[in-house]
């Protein structure tokens, strides 16, 4: 009986071991199937998504996922800025957590202006990301307030005409070659298209002249933020050791929400839910 009991315990232990191995295997599979996901919903108002598409295509086709700058590097650049502060490029590059940011520049390390070139690229790239993030926040707040675009606004008319110009030019770009080849019907159509483009450009010029009067009605940044210039400057200069900023300003806790729920940021405290952010200064009215 004792021998049977020992055999039973041994078989149960073996089964438990097999189960543990299976669970470990499943965890490994989950890790292998993990897909990096990061996005900034800028609504196509910046060139960011076009850049990402081209960069990722080049990185995947060449197999140089870390050597060609793309979306993943932008994610860690923003994470580094949240950790070390705005424009602290050298501190970010020296941090081992953000070593991926140095990979695309390894081939340029022999150049004399290597550091300057790298810092300029990071600053330029962050400028684009910052612009996209601001637009994303504007669109979120506009959607929250159920705001609609004013079709009578000169900027809307200008945008519509620009889209028409681009469409007209792209759809008839083959006519120039055919006209040069001596195709008379193509030549006649080309002249009509050029006349249409000329009229559209004339209308766009008129729209542009009306824009300054519309822009002059927009209140200054200090008024929209409901802060004095001194308060804005002191808020921008706030570092990690200073008192935490209040909700409603562009604090680091709000930046974290773009990194997803699993991103671990520096310092204690929970992360503010991005969808529950209070309405801020960017939207001034309906």
From TrEMBL:
GO terms for cellular component: NuRD complex. Pfam families: CHDCT2 (PF08074). Residues 66-211 form the CHD C-terminal domain. GO terms for molecular function: ATP hydrolysis activity; ATP-dependent chromatin remodeler activity; chromatin binding; DNA binding; histone binding. Keywords: Nucleus. Residues 1-26 are annotated as: Disordered. The keyword Nucleus applies. InterPro entries: CHD_C2. Residues 1-12 have a biased composition (Basic and acidic residues). The keyword Nucleus applies. PANTHER family: CHROMODOMAIN-HELICASE-DNA-BINDING PROTEIN 3-RELATED-RELATED, CHROMODOMAIN-HELICASE-DNA-BINDING PROTEIN 5. This is CHD5 protein. It comes from Pedionomus torquatus (Plains-wanderer).
